[in-house]
Write a structure and sequence with these properties.
Elements lengths: L16 H15 L5 E4 L2 E4 L13 E4 L1 H6 L28 E4 H14 L15 H20 L9 H27 L6 H8 L6 H20 L17 H7 L4 H6 L16 H22 L1 H22 L8 H18 L1 H5 L8 H22 L7 H18 L14 H31 L11 H4 L24 E6 L4 E8 L5 E5 L8 H15 L6
Parallel strand pairs: 3-4
Antiparallel strand pairs: 1-2, 5-6, 6-7
């Protein structure tokens, strides 16, 4: 929208009784800020009468302009001295005289600071004459914010991801209404009521993709349990309280050898909908309910689907390259991608979410909790990523993909209302950012896919990377008493020698994961039970093999 660069006003019309009432109310609200005008170089500017206070003044009166006309402050009850001396801000005069601060000026300061992420603004531009059109726009924004608070009683008390996005949407609506009101005022167009403008923008979006995804997760969880004979593996095998690796592989889990050697490229997509177990599923559903719904309502269903698929697919490709030996599922990858988009939205709108506000002083506290819960969610899913079948390489690659995609799907809140004219450079930069949000994820997915299928190796280019995706836990416990293990000792085989005289197995020839063979004295077990001995093979492997990894 083109910005108006002067303060000339034409007579404005209003259609309908309610619109006329609101137009007069808005004009009265604007008059309360005490706008006065003067000419400078052919343009009309607001004459700012700013009052200094650097801690050396005797009295500083925090009043409204109406109170200043009455000669006393209703809040403090102070009577003004007969003569109030206003000090030139640019001067070095440090005389201890009386001064006056108008609350309306300070509220404009706070709004400008919130939009520009600065410590001061219009009335704090010491001694500078200011364009009144900008002041009037800011006053219109304040008017819209007050109307919103009056219309929605619980507007200042709600906390959550959905509410944070609602705040961003509503703030953007109020800024757009203020720009539209300015254009109508200067063009002589009929006044549009704020409530009508808000109702047109307030069409809710049903997060059908999030709800469908939650249902699909539950279906796939019970399908995996059915394929596993309705049995849960021990927590040492699957700490997510779910099926075995064989069942997950059968269902479509990431298996690098099958993807490359057997041309099962579909396994780069299928893990996005498979759950490792009940624990994994519960945390994924919680994250979808709080973060997924909010992102979809803000970005839209199509954009959310693209963020989920691109981040999930890209994360699985990266995992296949760097940790090919791990069998993993990636439902949490797409969710981490949506969380990355949410993180990008917060960072792009920091000044709106955490800047000072003229009408709502506790929004920083509310949005601070939202940011804290997002960090907790990312930390929780990262902790789950150190367990078997869930992969941190997949998850954090997805966060990066989702972060980038967010720039392409929804632009940040525009604060062009602060500028008289928006430069071409600013417009081109905004277009470039959105273009890069599309281009960079595409190039990253394409490049990693070429690397995977063009020069795939059985071993990872980063052998130590597996320890970022799977960590034996708890690390302080003894080897035989940990909750889960991340080595390759679970699938080894061995030949046992039976001592007929003693009636027990006394020697074991173990095939270690790294390919070496070792002979282990097992006479200490004093057993002839093959099943017992088979269950002890992983512990024997960890104790006697030089390396428990292949």
């Amino acid at each position: 929208m083109n910005m108006i660069d002067d303060a000339s006003f034409t007579e404005q019309r209003a259609l309908g009784g309610d619109a006329e009432i609101e137009m007069e109310e808005n004009a009265e609200y604007a008059n309360e800020i005490g706008l006065t005008f003067g000419y400078k170089k052919g343009d009309i500017f607001q004459l700012i009468v700013d009052v200094a206070w650097d801690g050396k003044r005797k009295n500083v009166y925090d009043v409204t302009r109406k109170e200043s006309l009455q000669g006393s402050a209703m809040v403090s009850g102070k009577q003004f001295p007969k003569e109030i001396e206003f000090i030139d801000i640019d001067g070095d005069d440090a005389r201890p005289v009386n001064a006056m601060k108008f609350r309306e000026d300070m509220s404009i300061d706070r709004l400008y600071a919130q939009l520009s992420w600065s410590s001061g603004c219009c009335t704090s531009l010491r001694g500078v004459q200011m364009n009144s059109a900008l002041v009037r726009r800011l006053r219109d924004v304040q008017y819209a914010r007050l109307k919103r608070c009056h219309k929605y009683d619980d507007y200042r008390t709600q906390v959550g991801f959905v509410e944070m996005y609602k705040y961003l949407r509503d703030f953007s609506t109020d800024l757009d209404w203020a720009e539209d009101a300015s254009l109508r005022r200067h063009s002589g167009l009929p006044y549009q009521m704020w409530s009508d403008f808000d109702d047109n923008r307030r069409q809710g979006k049903l997060p059908i993709f999030t709800y469908s995804l939650m249902g699909l997760f539950l279906v796939m969880l019970f399908v995996s349990l059915g394929l596993n004979g309705w049995l849960l593996e021990s927590l040492a095998v699957n700490p997510m309280a779910g099926p075995s690796a064989t069942t997950l592989t059968m269902l479509g889990a990431k298996n690098s050898g099958l993807i490359v050697n057997d041309n099962q490229a579909w396994r780069l997509a299928s893990p996005m909908f498979i759950q490792a177990g009940f624990v994994d599923c519960v945390f994924n559903l919680i994250a979808l309910w709080f973060v997924g719904r909010a992102v979809e309502k803000h970005h839209g269903t199509f954009a959310s689907v693209m963020i989920y698929l691109v981040s999930g697919f890209g994360g699985i490709v990266v995992s296949t390259i760097f940790v090919p030996e791990l069998i993993t599922v990636g439902a949490s990858a797409g969710i981490m991608g949506l969380s990355g988009a949410c993180l990008a939205d917060i960072l792009r709108n920091l000044k709106v979410l955490y800047g000072k506000s003229s009408t709502d002083t506790d929004h920083v506290y509310r949005h601070g909790w939202v940011f804290l819960w997002l960090i907790i969610e990312l930390a929780t899913l990262t902790f789950l990523g150190i367990a078997p079948f869930v992969d941190n390489f997949t998850q954090w690659s997805a966060v990066l993909y989702g972060f980038l995609c967010s720039f392409a799907t929804v632009p940040g809140i525009s604060t062009t209302i602060l500028n008289v004219k928006q430069s071409r450079t600013t417009k081109r930069l905004a277009i470039l950012v959105r273009f890069l949000g599309l281009l960079l994820p595409f190039l990253a997915v394409l490049g990693s896919s070429v690397l995977l299928f063009g020069s795939f190796r059985v071993s990872s280019p980063c052998p130590a990377c597996r320890h970022l995706s799977c960590v034996p836990f708890p690390p302080w416990a003894e080897m035989h008493s940990r909750w889960w293990y991340c080595d390759d000792c679970g699938g080894i085989s061995a030949d046992a020698r039976f001592d007929k005289n003693a009636g027990v197995f006394d020697m074991l020839t173990l095939q270690c994961p790294d390919g070496d063979s070792v002979n282990v004295d097992i006479s200490r077990f004093g057993t002839s039970d093959q099943e017992f001995l088979s269950n002890q093979l992983p512990n024997i492997c960890r104790a006697d093999c030089a390396s428990p990894y292949n």
